[in-house]
From TrEMBL:
Substrates-to-products reaction catalysed: ATP + H2O = ADP + phosphate + H(+); Couples ATP hydrolysis with the unwinding of duplex DNA by translocating in the 3'-5' direction
Annotated organism of origin: Stenotrophomonas mori
Cofactor mode of binding and number, as noted: Binds 2 zinc ions per subunit.
Superkingdom of source: Bacteria
Protein name: Replication restart protein PriA
């Protein structure tokens, strides 16, 4: 029996292996050039689109099915990107086919061709040049013909030249006077605007980045407003001058129209944005433009880390500490970490920037693995804000605000300034409490007999909503347990703060800014625009992102940090410290010094002390020391195996079977099965098994051995399970 060539295809199915197929009819050979091409194959009684991952041979072709058809002539995923994604599949211990599907925009995942990326323009034909004099003067077709007589005009620019250009164009097209021609995307460069002269620390950073030869990781550690974005812009300009592409990752809330406008104006070329607000077709177009090398600068959120960069020169991860870089379902990758992997494979520098670097990155910088660049002053003349801690114990609070704080707000408003009241809790109040029996309104889909997940009071106290599963319910008229009418919203959310501030400061605008009010990307800018330069109050959660200059903001009041001081999550204090520093950074720019006031019932808390008196780096030192002694990341490496099922016995049985398969000799410690910190969510019971090892290698060695045994477990069929390597939160 002769050997028959086969294709090894990675398919988007939750199975660990790849699948062998015979090449499609009509082209029996399979070559190394096929690797990275998409192909349509039969799978069970379905058809799937997969990616050829390798080639092989078989002496029993009758046992294999033939692939149906190629989707690509050339490999779609080649070289570095495919290699990096293979690495990711191994690291996440996830099926390669699912990783590839995660990396591709939806239309490409479905097998659609790589979209066209050129722009279109209209020109006059020969007949048009000859015949345009015969058009009646002053009509739209005549005016359009006159415009096009000077040369091709891009379709995107035509509306600004002529209202109703489409009808005019159609009329000319009927006469054969015009034609549509393709032009290279973004063929209309503008003059880049000059930026400010860098200060010495910025210059040192710029020199380091532009002088990097090949892969080099940098931590650009600069206080808020120290001019990190200026450093990025200069490094990108240098990269463009070398004819290379740059990729900039930003957190979901950081990618604002203002930020894109700043990039476009300063670089003088189109900047492609990739974010969750785009439709599938737009995403695929940006992906394709990058793959063809046409997109020179791509600015995007988490999944933009999968952008192909055939001429890569620089990767930037702004606000690298931000939690939105971690994908929390499906393939649980971390975009910052994957950017480093890609930078290494591409041989280009990678910049991680933040005013509050993650403890992981600080640890790497201190160990010499990253070049540590620091910007310690605010750019221009802006001075850092003064921070004060207010002890509110035994002070009468009005919806959580102490008299001193209210007086301070009044003072800043009188001076014509703006005030931000920061509260990291959406809604009106966290819980609805019965004053007579202590009942609190639970989410029935997320609670267990032992663990009640409260619903949050919204809509000024009329509606209950669960922030975990989205369930909604009206507020009951009476307590379901004791019948009392004494139901009271407890605790304070942004909605309730807004209501109270409106009462107290009726002559000033009060704007609430949180995920509830700014679901759309430009809504925040519009809301801020209504405030303008006038004195007023902003009430917000951490959604108040950078990218919006608030030069009139002189006072930031932080209320309700106490919940964050006492959380079970080992990352809670890091997150709290980052939030405090970030929100404090919003106060005081340029000519107006800012103040930050923290209200707390725990003025002696060690974390607050260190943070307020020593700053973020002193906090980070203390926190790293604590993590080291407790054996938490970055001094340990974690993986979390989660299982959920309608019946908790099924979830536990699955994890118990996994635990059984762990060899007794391993250096990896395991904890569980135990209930997840949120043991029920949307009707599913959730349990987990935590694996922890001092060395990354030990953890991955165990997972390599373990996972092939987990997939076929009979208990696996009764649960939804997932593996999260380097989990960011343990929920
Ligand atoms: P970051 O990204 O660190 O928050 P930005 O780069 O946005 O800081 O800079 C903050 C502000 O300071 C911006 O308005 C920017 O134009 C200005 N700025 C940055 N660098 C300089 C400089 N060297 N001289 C004067 N102004 C600067
Ligand atoms: Zn009651
Ligand atoms: Zn719920």
């Amino acid at each position: 029996m002769p050997f028959c060539p086969t294709l090894r295809v990675a398919l988007p199915v939750p199975l660990p292996q790849t699948f062998d197929y015979l090449p499609p009819a009509g082209r029996p050979a399979a070559t190394a050039d096929d690797v990275g091409r998409r192909i349509r194959v039969p799978f069970g009684n379905r058809e799937l689109v997969g990616v050829v991952e390798g080639t092989g041979a078989t002496d029993a072709p009758a046992t294999l099915r033939a692939a149906l058809e190629w989707c690509d002539g050339q490999p779609l995923l080649g070289g570095e990107l495919l290699a990096s994604l293979r690495w990711l599949a191994r690291y996440a211990h996830a099926p390669l086919g699912e990783v590839l599907a995660t990396a591709l925009p939806a239309p490409l995942r479905r097998g659609e061709p790589l979209p066209e990326t050129q722009d279109w323009a209209w020109t006059l034909t020969e007949a048009g040049h000859l015949g345009r004099d015969r058009l009646r003067a002053g009509t739209r077709p005549q005016r359009l013909a006159e415009l096009l007589a000077t040369g091709a005009v891009a379709e995107t620019l035509l509306p600004s030249h002529l209202d109703g250009w489409r009808e005019a164009c159609r009329a000319l097209l009927k006469r054969g006077f015009v034609q549509r021609v393709a032009i290279a995307a973004g063929a209309v460069p503008a003059h880049p605007l000059a930026g400010p002269v860098p200060n010495p620390q910025q210059q040192t950073a710029i020199d380091a980045l532009t002088g990097a030869d090949g892969f080099q990781p940098f931590l650009l550690d600069g206080v808020t407003g120290s001019g990190k974005t200026e450093v990025y812009l200069q490094a990108i300009a240098h990269c463009l001058a070398q004819g290379r592409q740059a990729l900039v990752l930003v957190p979901e809330i950081g990618l604002t129209p203002q930020m894109l406008a700043r990039f476009r104006a300063r670089l003088g070329i189109p900047v492609q944005a990739l974010h969750s607000g785009l439709n599938d077709g737009e995403r695929a177009r940006v992906w394709a433009a990058a793959a063809r090398g046409e997109a020179r600068v791509v600015v995007g959120t988490r999944s933009a880390v999968f952008t192909p960069l055939p001429q890569a020169g620089l990767l930037i991860v702004d606000e690298e500490h931000d939690g939105s870089y971690k994908q929390q379902d499906g393939i649980r990758y971390h975009a910052r970490d994957f950017a480093l992997v890609r930078g290494k494979a591409l041989g280009v520098p990678v910049v991680l920037g933040s005013a509050t670097p993650s403890l992981e990155s600080l640890h790497n910088a201190r160990a010499g693995r990253y070049t540590h660049l620091r910007l310690q002053q605010r750019a221009g003349d802006a001075r850092p804000p003064a921070v004060r801690v207010f002890d509110v114990r035994k002070r009468p609070l009005q919806d959580g605000l102490s008299p001193d704080v209210l007086a301070g707000i009044a003072q800043h408003l009188q001076a014509g300034n703006q005030v931000l009241v920061f509260k990291n809790r959406r809604g009106y109040a966290p819980v609805l409490l019965c004053h007579d029996c202590g009942w609190t309104a639970p989410c029935t889909r997320c609670s267990t007999p032992l663990h009640a997940t409260p619903m949050t009071v919204h809509a000024g106290g009329r509606r209950l909503q669960c922030h975990h599963c989205g369930a909604r319910a009206p507020v009951p008229l009476a307590c379901p347990d004791c019948g009392s009418l004494a139901l009271q919203p407890q605790g304070i959310g942004t909605e309730r703060l807004e209501e109270r501030l409106l009462q107290l400061f009726p002559e000033h605008p009060v704007l609430r800014i949180d995920r509830g009010t700014t679901a759309r990307r430009d809504a925040l800018a519009q809301t801020l625009a209504t405030l303008g330069e006038a004195p007023g109050i902003l009430v917000g959660t951490q959604i108040l992102a950078k990218g919006h200059d608030l030069p009139r903001l002189t006072l930031v009041v932080v209320v309700g940090i106490d919940e964050g001081l006492f959380s079970a999550d080992f990352r809670a204090s890091e997150k709290l410290a980052q939030q405090l520093i970030q929100v404090a950074g919003r106060a005081g720019r340029a000519d107006r010094p800012g103040e930050v006031w923290l209200q707390t019932h725990h003025p002696d808390n060690a974390l607050l002390h260190t943070l307020v008196n020593g700053g973020y780096h002193a906090f980070a030192d203390a926190e790293l020391a604590q993590r080291e002694s407790a054996g938490f990341p970055p001094f340990a490496h974690l993986a979390l195996l989660r299982a959920e099922a309608k019946q908790v016995e099924h979830a536990n049985a699955f994890l118990a079977a996994v635990r059984q398969a762990i060899p007794a000799t391993t250096a990896v410690e395991h904890y569980g099965p135990m209930p997840a910190p949120m043991p029920r969510r949307a009707g599913f019971q959730r349990t987990q098994l935590l694996l922890s090892a001092p060395q990354r290698r030990a953890l991955h060695g165990l997972l390599d051995a373990l996972l092939p045994q987990v997939y076929p477990l009979p208990q696996a069929r009764r649960v939804r399970w997932s593996l999260d390597v380097d989990p960011v939160d343990l929920y």
